[in-house]
Amino acid sequence: MPVMLELKDLIASVGDDEPKTILNGLSLNVPFGEVHAIMGPNGAGKSTLSYVLTGRHGYDVLSGKALLDGDDLLEMDPEARAAAGLFLSFQYPVEIPGVPVMTFVRTAMNAQRAVRGEPEISAPDFIKQARLVANELKLTPDMLMRPLNVGFSGGEKKRLEIFQMRMLEPRFAILDETDSGLDIDALRTVAEGVNVLRDEKRGMLVITHYQRLLDYIKPDKVHVLSAGRIITSGGPELALRLEKEGYDGIVGEAA
Amino acid sequence: MAINIPELRQKFSNPGIAELDLIARYASLPEDERRGRMFDAFAETGLPGRRVEGWRWTDVEAAAARLDGTVAPVVVPALSQPHDATVFALSPTELETPEQLPDGILVHRRDVVPALAEAENIPMAALAGSLCQYKDNAASIVIEITAPLSAPVYVNWVGQSADTNFSRLAIVVRSGASLDLVESYCGGASLSSTLVELKLEDNADVRRSLFHAGDAHEIMTATALVELAANARFVQTILSLGSLLSRFETRIGHTGTGSNATLNAAYLCGADRHCDITTFVRHGAPSCVTRQMTKGAVLAGGRGVFQGKFLVPRTIGQFTDADMQHQALLLEKGAEVFAKPELEIYADDVECAHGNTSGALDDEQLFYMRQRGIPLSRARALLTEAFVSEALASASPAVRDALHDTAREFLSEMHG
Ligand SMILES: Nc1ncnc2c1ncn2[C@@H]1O[C@H](COP(=O)(O)OP(=O)(O)O)[C@@H](O)[C@H]1O
Ligand SMILES: [Mg+2]
Predict the structure, then answer these.
(1) What angle do CA A121, A123, A125 make, to 5 degrees?
(2) In this structure, which topology does domain A3-254 adopt according to CATH?
(3) Do A164 and B372 touch (CB under 8 A)?
C-alpha cells in the first residue's frame, strides 16, 4: 500500500520563551489502510507529536517533513489540516462552555464540508446520524445538548472524542491515550467505535501507554517512541513484550 | 426674554461650543424654577469630562469637542416587535402613542416640570431634565401601568436630527401590576441624553430590555432612576454595541423590604465604539436582593467601561443579598476595558460579593475548535457569543432571540 502519512526526520521544539527540543529526528510511515500504535514512556514526546501534526501554536517544527497523502501538513493552519481529514482525539479534551455538543459538531462538520466544496448537512440528517452514533457509544441525547465536555466525566469526555471522530469521519485519526481513564466496558465501546472507521482509504495512529487498548484495536505495526524518536518498530508482539518487560529494557537495548 | 444668556454662560467655566448650544437651547424654553435648578446643576460640571467623578473614562466633554456636526448620525433599525405589542415612539418633541391603548396602560401629559431630587448630581440626567420639552406645553409624560399586561410595551427612542436630543419619561407601575418593557436606542442625534424614571410599587413586576446601537458620530447617555417598593421585582437587560460615546447609567433604590433586582448587561464594542455601563444600587430596605452580571467583548479600537456600586447602609440595609460580576473579553490587541466595582457596606448581617475579570479568549479552546475544522474567526465568534449570552438570558422573550442574533451578527463580522 502507498504511504498515507509520511513523517521524515522531524525535529520540533516546544515553548515560546525557552524553546526545548522534544522531537529529535522522528521518522515514520503509515500506509493507507493501516493502524499503527505508538508506545513510549511518559514524557517521550507522544503528545508533542500529535500537536505538531495538528498545528498547535507553540509547537515549532525546526526541520523535517510531515505529509498527509502528499500534502504538506506543516504549511497548513490547524483548521485546514482538519478539513484535509486529520483528526486528533485529545489526551485531555477541552471544555467549551456555552457551546452545546450538537452545535459544536455541526459547525465543525459544515466548516470542513465548505472547505472541501461539499454541501452542508441538513439538520434532520445531522440529528439522525448523531443519534445513531451516540447510541452506539452509549451517550444519551441529553448529553449532546450540554456544553461540550463541561461537567463530563473523564470517560464521557473520551467517548465524546470518539463521537466527534465518528461524525466527522476523518481520513486520518490520531488517538492520544484515548484509553486512559476508561474502564473495560467503556474501552470496548470506544474501540468498537474506532474500528468502524477502519478501511483501506483511512489510516490511524494510536498513541497509548498500555498494551490493553491494542487487544481491541489491533495495530498493523507498533513503534516505540523514546526521547523524541522512534527507537524500535515491530508487529503487535512488540506491544506484548513491552507490557511484560517494561520500557526500561527495550529503551536500554535500543540505546 | 427673561433668561439672560450672558448670565447663564457665567455659570459654566469655559463653556465649549457644544455647551454654548445647550445654553441657547435652554434659553429658548419656557422659564421654570425646577428647570432652572436642573440646568444650574448641569452647569456645575458642564458636559462631564475626565475631571468629574464617575466620568473619568467616559469623557463627554472631549468627545463633544470632536463631534463633527456635518455628519448626520445613522439610525439603526429598532428591534422587531410582536403584533400585539404596544409601541410608543419617543422623539424629543412628542411621545407618539397608539390610538387605542390596551387596558392597564394610561398616558398622562403634564405641564409641570418634575424635580429631579438628588439625581441632579448626574450631569447628563440634569441636562435631560432641564432641556426636555414636549409639544403643546407638555413638560413631562407619565405612563401608568395599572394591571398585569399580557403583551410587551415598546418605547423606541427616536433621534430627530443631527443635532441634539433630550427626553424624559416617567413610568409608574402600580401595586401588583406587571410590565414587559422593551426600549430601543438607535441613534439619529449627535448628542442625546434620555432619562427614564421608573417607580415600582409593592409587588410590581418589571422586565426591562434595552438595545442600543449607534454610529461613530453619536454621543448618547441613557439614565434610569428606578425605585423598588416592597417585594417589587425588577429585571433589566442591556445589549449595547456602543457609539462614539455611550453610557447606560442605572440607579436602583431598594426602598421597600424584600425587593429584588437583576441587572444584566452585555456590551460589544468594535473599532471607534465606546460603551459604558454604570450602576448604583442602594439597599435602603432590609432583605433586598441584587444580582448583577455584566459581560463585555471588545475589539481593537473599542472601549468598554464598567462602574458598579452597591451601597448598603447600616440598619436599614440588614439582610442584603447582593452580587456583582463583571467579565470582559479583550478580543484583540488595542481593545480597552476599564472597570471599577465597588461595595460600600455598613450593615453587618449581609451577603455581598463581587468579581471582576478581563482577559483574552482561551488559546486551548481555540486550538481545540480549529482542530475540528472550525476556522479561527468562527471559533472566536462562537466562544464570544457563548460568553456574553449568559447576560442576555434575562431579556424579554419578545426580543431575547433578536438580541442573541444581533450579538452573533456583530461577532461574525469580526476577523481572525
Ligand atoms: N508546552 C510545553 N512547554 C514546555 N515543555 C513541554 C510542553 N509540552 C510538553 N513539554 C515537555 O515535552 C516533553 C514531552 O511531553 P509529551 O509530548 O506530553 O510527552 P508524552 O505525551 O509522551 O507523555 C516533556 O518533557 C514535557 O515536559
Ligand atoms: Mg501525552
Answers:
(1) 65
(2) Rossmann fold (3.40.50)
(3) yes
Closest residue by Cα to residue B242 from B276, B291, B191, B208: B276
8 A C-beta contact, residue B156 and residue B86: no
The 3-state DSSP class for residue B228 equals strand
For every residue of A121-132, DSSP letters joined together read PPHHHHHHHHHH
Q: Chain B within 8 Å of A94 (Cβ-Cβ)?
A: yes
Residue A188 CB contacts under 8 Å (≥ 6 apart), including other chains: A216
B30 has pLDDT over 80: yes
C-alpha to C-alpha distance for A91 and A103, rounded to whole angstroms: 22
* CB A46 near ligand 1, within 6 Å: yes
ipTM, 2 decimals?
0.97
Instruction: Check residue B161 and give its pLDDT.
Output: 65
C-alpha cell recorded at residue B82: 410582536
Q: Is A104 on the interface with B (CB under 8 A)?
A: yes
Count of CA atoms in the C-beta half-sphere (13 A) of B142: 14
Across A99-103, B46-50, B359-363, B410-414, least confident range: B410-414
Specify the pLDDT at position B415. Answer: 56
A169 vs B310: CA distance, rounded Å: 53
Q: What type of residue is B116?
A: L
> Whole-angstrom Cα distance, residue A160 to residue A138?
10
Report how far Cα A243 is from the mean position of its chain's Cα atoms: 22
Judge whether B372 and A61 are in contact, CB under 8 Å: no
Asked if B372's CB is within 8 angstroms of A104's CB, the reply is yes
Which positions 324-363 of B are in contact with A (Cβ < 8 Å)? 363
Q: pTM for this one? A: 0.89
List of residues 6+ apart from A247 with CB closer than 8 A: A40, A41, A224, A226
Secondary structure (3-state) at A194:
helix
Residue contact B367–A93, C-beta within 8 A = no
Report the residue from A97, A112, A168 with minimal CB separation from B386.
A97
Shortest alpha-carbon distance between residue A9 and chain B (Å): 24
Q: Which residue has the cell 515549532?
A: A60
B416 contacts chain A (CB < 8 A): no
Question: For B79, what's the count of Cα atoms within 13 Å in the CB-facing half-sphere?
Answer: 36
Alpha-carbon span B284 to B262, nearest angstrom: 16
In short, whether A170's Cβ falls inside 6 Å of ligand 1 is: no
For chain A, which residues make up each domain, given as ranges?
Answer: 3-254
**CA–CA separation, A226 and A244 (whole Å):** 18
Q: Are B280 and B252 in contact (CB under 8 A)?
A: yes
What mean pLDDT do residues B185-206 have?
94
Mean pLDDT in residue range A40-61: 95
Tens-digit pLDDT profile for residues B309-362: 999 999 999 999 999 999 999 999 999 999 999 999 999 999 999 999 999 999
Please tell me the predicted confidence (pLDDT) of residue B197: 97
A63 interfaces chain B, CB cutoff of 8 Å: no
**Of B206, B184, B186, nearest in space to B197 by CA:** B206
pLDDT, one tens digit per residue, over B275-314 is 999 999 999 999 999 999 999 999 999 999 999 999 999 9
In this structure, are residues B189 and B73 in contact, taking their beta carbons and an 8 Å threshold?
yes
Lowest mean per-residue pLDDT among A56-65, A124-133, B59-68:
B59-68
What are the tens digits of pLDDT across the range A22-44?
999 999 999 999 999 999 999 99
Judge whether B97 and B12 are in contact, CB under 8 Å.
Answer: no
Query: Residue B82 — φ and ψ, nearest 5°?
Result: -65, 155
Which residues from chain B sit within 8 angstroms of residue A90, using beta carbons?
A: 368, 371
